[in-house]
Amino acid sequence: MRFPAITKMALVRRGLHSSAINRVPLLITPKEYQDLPKRTTLPLDVSWHMPNSTRSALAEFLSGPRLPNAKRFDLDEVAELDLNENPLSLTHMLPKPERFAEECRKLGIRNDDHIVLYDTIGIFSSPRALYTFKVFGHENVSVLDGGLPRWIEEGYETENGEVKPTLRESQYKIPESWKKDWVRSYEQIVSNSELSNSDPISELILDHRPLLRFTGESEEPRQGLSSGHIPNSISLPFSNYLNSPNDNDKIPYYSYKSINELKKVFEIALGGKEELNKFILNQKGVIFSCGSGMTAAIGWLANELIKQNEGGKGLKTSLYDESWTGYALRKESKIVKGKD
């Protein structure tokens, strides 16, 4: 399967080296998406909104605007809903491989299709969807940087009204194996939290919620849930990875910072360039966490972008699937308040 070459100039603008040209990019611009072959490319709306938001991702998709020929991949529906496996009824937990493959079949996705994921914020829930596809071994997948708002802002065609039905289900194969080492459980988080960050076998938890929720000074958006943080975790709000909306944009959107800026974000969080290099050299684990496992993937993808640019060199990472909601719902969990 061939993809049109992405120009060296486009890569330089984003901070990528020319060695990344022959790979399916993890992140693409609207122009790069527009140039992809339509027969083997499928856009998926993976929008999701916070539980205290009045917006409905599904309603917005059904009414439009949306990318032409887009389908809807609902991260809360394509999830682990079995109470035996998810007793806390947490949202968008990773599904079983069979459930993932089932949804891909319904949407007509083939194993070698190039899937382009977007959301209506710009960069918010699309990295979590990419993480899901990658966990189950679907390699030809990208995130549309800036999402639907940027697509509209740059003048590309959209679709409204009735969604075109999937004409034929695919024969998407169930993944024979999946990347279990990319996921951390509650039990692993508790065991890890009992270790000092200086312990060579410990993993560092980066909490991507806003700082005041981390310190316990602000309430959680989920009613009745305590704020605070996991012992020995560090605050790194997900907004640090992103460019804020431009005042000149008619439709505001968030997009990823450049590769060099993303590297600087990790340097600051880990205590400097030397410390970051130690983490990479020693392959000391880093765990991304957030409120519910959604925006943690923004940090995960930031590291993957660096690795794609650096020939695979980057942090060894995983994602705490339950994140803060699953942790704080358990009465036995130790919750720390303040910045330490």
Which terms summarize this structure?
Oxidized Rhodanese, domain 1, 12% strand, single chain, five-stranded parallel β-sheet, 30% helix, alpha/beta, 340 residues, disordered N terminus
Describe this structure in words.
This protein has 340 residues and is an alpha/beta fold. The protein contains twelve helices and twelve strands. Strand 2, helix 3 and strand 3 (71-72) form a beta-alpha-beta unit. The longest helix has 14 residues, at 296-309. The chain is globular, with a radius of gyration of 20 Å. The termini are far apart. The relative contact order is 0.15. The model is unreliable at 1-22 (pLDDT under 50).
Entry summary:
The chain has 340 residues and is α/β, with parallel strands linked by helices. The chain is built from 12 helices and 12 strands. It has a 5-stranded parallel beta sheet.
